[in-house]
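Sample pair:
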Amino acid sequence: MSRHSDRGPLTRRQALALMSAGAGAAAFSADLFAQKTPSFPRGSVIRTLFKDVPPADIDGPILFHEHLSIELPPNLNPRPANAPPPPPAQPPATANVDLIVEEVKAAAKDGIRCIVDGGHPDMKRNLENLKAIATRANLLVVASGGYYMERVYPPKPPPIGTARSVKSERTQTRR
């Protein structure tokens, strides 16, 4: 029951106040949640596997952290002595390129225009599989770069932003 039910019906003034408040809230929330077209600096590009694309040319959603190809190293933590033996190693689902192509095609059918693969070389990302997936699914794919977990860092990674680190990341994604 509303708080007004025990005091009788609403007056016209109360009804108008409630309707005005509702209309104002609706107008405010529509503006608050409306999608706005983002702006990008002149010359901006999204570097996909096969070409650089101006952001304005991508006319739909971008999935920005997917794993189309990944084979993480096994858990390196010691197992307790009384733990049952681990299950036999299975190939990762992403090793099945046909399956991933069908999933990416389904995403494209749902309106996705670009996928950023969150895998890195240290995760045993297979760049050739990514290229095959992008080609066969006819979808823009971005391969990320860098390092993920400290346990798989090289002994001495190049300092961030140095020519050596930038060249290394470009080499990994442009092979």
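DSSP finds four helices and five strands in the chain.
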